[in-house]
What we know:
This protein is mainly alpha-helical. The chain contains eight helices and three strands.
Amino acid sequence: CESEVHKGMARKYSIIGDTNVEVSGYLKMDAFLDGTLPEDTLNIWKMQKENINLSQVVKIIYAPHHTLGEEKHSFSTFSQNYMKILEYAKEHPKTSWIYKPHPLLKQACIKNGLFKNEEEYDCYVREWENIPNGKAGDKKRSATVKSYEPRMKAAETKGEQEVIALLSKAQVDKWKKAKGAPFKL
């Protein structure tokens, strides 16, 4: 499991307690801990003016939900705010924005009549790309997800010992300490 908190939940709520649970960490975060992030990973923020100090800029990820309209569980305010938020981003140079919608938002917008078709929605997304302090992240995945994928593919196709080699040293050390070496996952 990811943490002692999760192990405690297993202890409290599982019929067998935490007898089959080890704290292993969170694979998606390994790249941050072991320094294997691609160089451009942290350089994701677009600036309106080059002479603005990045530490003084408010960084905002606008990640609207896909539930629109009269759905029973509608969490989104996208239909009321999408243009206001884009205009706000344009008017505030000391902000940097990433528009990262839910993958189902495009179809929900078309279904609910907010946009006539995919081309019209894509035009809205391009507006985010075209402002000096904005980006659209709807077709790109985060670096942490990218760094996680090879490990998971290996886990699906390789044997246990090879998978262990792909895990972070910190995770392997935790498992060795908990189980004693040699060990099996």
